[in-house]
Amino acid sequence: MADDKDVLRDVWFGRIPTCFNLNQDEVTEREAEPYYLLLPRVSYLTLVTDKVKKHFHKVMKAEDAEEMWFEYEGTPLKWHYPIGVLFDLHASNTVLPWSITVHFKNFPDRDLLHCQSNSVIEAHFMSSIKEADALKHKSQVVNDMQKKDHKQLWMGLQNDKFDQFWAMNRKLMEYSTEDGGFRYIPFRIYQTMSDRPFIQKLFRPVSPEGSMHTLGDLLKETYPAALPTEGEQKRFQVVIHGIEPLLETPLQWLSEHLSHPDNFLHICIIPVPTD
Amino acid sequence: MPVSLLWAVDVYGRVYSLSTAGQQWEQCRDAQMEFKRVTAAQQCCWGIACDNNIYLNVHASDLPVRYQEETYENQRWNPVDGFSDRLLPSDRWQWSDVTGLQHQPLDSFTLPSSSWEWEGDWHMDENFEGEPTEKEGWNYSIDFPATYTKDKKWNSCVRRRRWLRYRRYKAMDTWAKIPKQQTSLPDPFSDISCGGWEISEEPRARLSLWAVSLQGKVWFREGICHHNPEGSSWEEVPLPGEVVQISCGPGDLVWAVLWEGTSWAVVDSPSPDVGAIHAAVGVNVVWALTKDNKVWFRRGVNSHNPCGSGWISMIGEMIMINVGLNDQVLAISCEDRAVCFRQGVTSSELSGKTWRVINVPRDGDRSHSSASASSLQSAGCYFCGEVQVQTVSSDVESDTDKASTDGANCLATSTSPESFVDAPSDQLSETPKPLIPKVTSDSFISELVSDRETGKISREVCGSAAPAWSNVDLEEAQGQQAQTGAALDSADTCSLSSVATYTLAMEDPYGADEHPLWAWVSGGGCSVDSHSQLNWFNILVQSVQSMSLSITPAQTAAWKRQIFEQLNERTKRELDNFRHYEQAIEQSVWMKKGTMQWWRDWKPHKWMDVHFALEQFSGPEGNKDGILFIYYNFYEEKKYLHAFINEVTILVPVLNDYKHTFAIYTPERTKQRWPIRVSAATELEMHDWLALLSVSCCDSRGIQGPPSKQAIWSITCKGDIFVSEPSPALEEMPYPTPCDQMFWRQVGGHLRMIECNSVGIVWGIGYDHTAWIYTGGYGGGFFQGLASSTDNIYTQVDVKSVYIYENHRWNPVTGYTNRGLPTDRYMWSDASGLHECTKTNTKPPSPQWTWVSDWAVDYSVSGGTDREGWQYAADFPASYHGYKTMKDFVRRRRWKVQTGHHGPWQEIPPIPLSDVSILPCAAQSSVDVVPLWAISNKGDVLCRLGVTALTPAGSSWLHVGTDQPFKSVSIGAASHVWAIARDGSAFYRGSVSSQDPAGDCWYHIPSPSKQKLKQVSVGRTSVYTVDENSNLWYRQGVTPSYPQGSAWEHISNNVRKVSIGPLDQVWIIADKVQGSRSLSCGTVCHRLGVQPKEPKGQSWDYGIGGGWDHVTVRGNSMEPPRLPSLTELSAQM
């Protein structure tokens, strides 16, 4: 029996098989073997790549290893986007495993944020949660939480503890039946062919007439180009967690079930593969 | 929430109903005539038709309205004839009632009205106090009146027998005229209102029907109850003024509006309001309209303060207002005659938020536009004739100074006659100032002014322009058009139904039809609340919006199915070929810590502060496991107690007023009858812990998702529901799984009993006798979020009444007051008087309960109460009675409040049940239609039709006739139905089969001697019963050819309940089970050694308890793994 709760699990336990290769230009003492890992879609690159770092450090001199960063086919990968978003945006419809190049020098300061320690990720993650709750509940829920509750959310993500995380996160997903949904849906729309990092607007889950807004409604409002026009071939895929929900899917439901742990619904608009 | 109906009358007198699940008004086609007003209750709807008769429409139900007539045939013995009907002159009648005082021959019984029919002929009752009598049904005695026995003795000189006949109310779902009384009423009724169904609880189902006659007198319909839906007679209720309109709430509130426009409460306390024309009463609210169509809400009304404390002006202009169930408010707007629903009315916010127009089409709206003109015409004709007759009769009677009654009734004008307008100002000077609430006094006066002004203005308008129509009379208005002047003259003396007045004259009837004009609405039968999902409002919105598709179930499935499918595909694509890859995050130990209190194991037992920690880790095979630690100090020394999560068998919330406690059992602790008891600081903390611990217990045992079809269900005395997955070894011979090792997990919801079978059909019955069906979900209750399925969880309002008592002592100065003697009980207490229970400090039985009603006086206390719910006694504590005598110095009354819940349960309306039984069947058998029997809370035996594994709720009830109310029923695997009557006698139902699901007749089975039976359970072949003295009996000699068996054999005592499974396994709830550390009552026990050849078994194995009330093993048809028996072994050798 498929249940909404199973969706939460599937989302949480989504994994991307990845092959890490050391950049050719890095100075090594001997040849570096590629390193294979299953990356959690909902986590952040720098949070889950300690093993990768250790693996490549073994073949390098300590002084040659600066801050580690990742690149895929020439695009530096922003660690502060969830891994699943990076994959869907840049590498969906390619052959698995996902091949990521690892760099230890020439950190692209213009493209990437530095990430010296996990506390930077934690700060980023918690600020996303707070921003999302500001949209959803005027920050009421997150402000009512104690420090240890915030910690529980973070620890849940860090240690891949679904139960621990959701025991707390469910509070962030509550809303009164009278309202029929959150105040605003926290979402971000990513596109490959744009200078803007992402689109983010205020959008309510329920229309003034009382009907539920759908994914299609959201796109119509924020990114009409992504919608297929009549009589024309579909040009864009609307991807969330590697799947393409139907456009009539209610946005509120998506926000409750397909949001990332940072409580944002990350939507990738990617061109339909031409081949 | 079950589907219920909202009733309304449009301006043409057509009656419509709107279902809470529906999207259009359905016209009541069988109404032969037009109606003026309707007033609805959940089971019926009353109306005043234009012929001024009262009509009743009783909703059809699977449970017939059936009345048992009885009479006694008396005989005396004489030496010549033996027993004969020749009685002594001093004796009673040959045919009499039970007392012998009333002469009652068989032919003296007639049907009360044409709405009734006889169900069969007279027959004798062959049951005497639970024992079958001799064939003729005679009971013998020495003389009249004396004690009777069923056996003839040497000194039996007289005998009598009871004859029974049933009559059945047949006028279901149709408008049946209430017969006129012999002593004809002086004048016809102009308003009716029904309510009062919350005063007495279900079995009696009393209803109060109040009516107002044209002369302003108030009448009350006596004797309306379940088996007499029509009531018996009208009784006049004297009132100090003449009433225009009356409204009766579901509880004990009745408000009436007087001609002067003042509201009076029946307790004779005037409430200050001016120019009121309409009042509507709910459980705890009163709404009113004034003549200028303003809406007023009365603050602070409840049953101990029926007058409330002040008026608050509300937004909106209405011509009619009605309070439905749950204090929901319906009104008809002044402007466009639309039916409006008040949104956001909750028990905490009774005044609601906004008016919302009910915006649904009527059935056949299209076809009507042409028909309406003629219907208008015919309606008019009818009215015309009728009204004229009426005019003649009422003119004779009516006081000429007063408004002529016919004018009042039919001549609706929007004018208020001068005398009438002035009345309020007089009223103002008379009204004692303090009674005018401060909050509203300003608006109150402006109200007066405006009232007067509008009155005058409208009169001018009216004089110059057109006449106004009323809903009650369309033709009159046409007549008026012809003789406007005359009509207006008479209008001067009339008044009244400005309530139901509307200015329609200028409107085109065709145009009017496009947009229905409503005249009257009644929500008394309409069970909605602020959470109800109603489809009444957004029809138009949806049709306009093309882009945002409305979500219908089919579409829901499509988008959700898409997501499920794609997620599965994603897993295949991204994961299945790469499972050998290393995980990026290593699993580690996770701990949750907290502080708790622990009921310490050694004496003296007391609560002590401890640190509580759950350590979770991944077991060797990847399964999760954990250990629970309780760290405590023992003489300054730090110690700890631990329990392995995989050994915990159950977590039981043990809630009381003082502590948020739960108990943790392991097999060892179950043997000791001594669980680990811990208590959290707050409810929330307890829930977090319970949810977390439950999840880790389930994880460690690899249990997830909904319970299996074989599951064993049980219920605690608090109504908490637990379920256990039976292992195949549970019924194994000779070494079954010990009962105390069974793992139980909680399922949300609250039930009194539960029954299931092995195809997964699970029915439950709540404390309020509501029937519930299991939806296949899991979780609910405190398992919010993860541990709960998100589908299939519903709000379950199981109404459990919580009672507190208000105690008064009499003193010579002030009479009864809340000032007691120092030695007295608390002035607010529980039933014992030992604990103080005030309305504010009394909490729901557990945090999963929330109050669903406010405190109200409970009148249905045993011993009876007076009109205000008081019971009197000489002193506390003593026996209480419902009337005051000279010797009574104390009094008390019971207050009750009701609570609700949520879990994977859906209601099966509408018949409340007290017992249910489902045919147990083998796991593999594919029974299409599953027989299900039940007992209603009135004691009717019912058979459910259409129950299958796919439609476990079935479709309808088939009523099975009995001569007396029943209390327990059970159907065995071979369709053998056994039942227990309320008098403790057992019955076997003959010829039950799949062709004849209800069987043909009852066979009375004598009870074990001197025992009254209480409950029965039938398995594959075994029949077990429990009697009222807690003995367990086994029926001997049951064979396929003689299923009634031959005799009862005593098996055990201290048994509260028995459940026989499809393999004839025997499980009970036992009392007085001795553990190694404590004694428990209400323990789940399993009979060991039950085999086909030894169905009685040998001994008991004790499981979880105490505090258990119910268990059912009727789903467990898992045959134990068969071990070759010794004989087979030897045969092989």
TrEMBL record, chain A:
Q: Name one GO biological process term.
A: immune system process
UniProt keyword annotations, A-Z: Acetylation, Apoptosis, Autophagy, Cytoplasm, Immunity, Isopeptide bond, Membrane, Ubl conjugation
The primary location reported for this protein is cytoplasm
Q: Name one GO molecular function term.
A: Atg8-family ligase activity
Q: Name one Pfam family in it.
A: ATG5_UblB
- Autophagy protein ATG5 UblA domain residues are 11-104
Q: How does it sit in the membrane?
A: Peripheral membrane protein
Q: Where is the Autophagy protein ATG5 UblB domain?
A: 184-269
GO CC, one annotated term: Atg12-Atg5-Atg16 complex
Q: Where in the cell is it found?
A: Cytoplasm; Preautophagosomal structure membrane
What are the Autophagy protein ATG5 alpha-helical bundle region domain coordinates in residue numbering?
Answer: 120-174
Question: What InterPro entries has UniProt attached to this entry?
Answer: Atg5, ATG5_HBR, Atg5_HR, ATG5_UblA, Atg5_UblA_dom_sf, ATG5_UblB
Family as reported in the entry's similarity comment: Belongs to the ATG5 family.
Cross-referenced PANTHER family: AUTOPHAGY PROTEIN 5 (PTHR13040)
Name the job this protein performs.
Answer: Involved in autophagic vesicle formation.
What quaternary arrangement does the UniProt entry report? Conjugated with ATG12. Forms a conjugate with ATG12. Part of the minor complex composed of 4 sets of ATG12-ATG5 and ATG16L1 (400 kDa); this complex interacts with ATG3 leading to disruption of ATG7 interaction and promotion of ATG8-like proteins lipidation. Forms an 800-kDa complex composed of ATG12-ATG5 and ATG16L2. The ATG12-ATG5 conjugate interacts with RAB33A; this interaction is bridged by ATG16L1 and promotes ATG12-ATG5-ATG16L1 complex recruitment to phagophores. Interacts with TECPR1; the interaction is direct and does not take place when ATG16L1 is associated with the ATG5-ATG12 conjugate.
Indicate what this protein is called per its UniProt record: Autophagy protein 5
Organism of this sequence: Labrus bergylta
UniProtKB/TrEMBL annotation, chain B:
The parts of the chain that form a coiled coil are none
Its BP terms in the Gene Ontology are: autophagy
Q: Where in the cell is it found?
A: Cytoplasmic vesicle, Autophagosome membrane; Lysosome membrane
Q: Where is the Peroxin/Ferlin domain?
A: 64-125, 137-170, 797-858, 869-902
Checking SUPFAM superfamilies in the record gives: PH domain-like
The UniProt record lists the keyword Oxidoreductase: no
Q: Identify the main location.
A: membrane
Q: What does the similarity note say?
A: Belongs to the TECPR1 family.
Under what name is this protein listed? Answer: Tectonin beta-propeller repeat-containing protein 1
Q: Which organism is it from?
A: Labrus bergylta
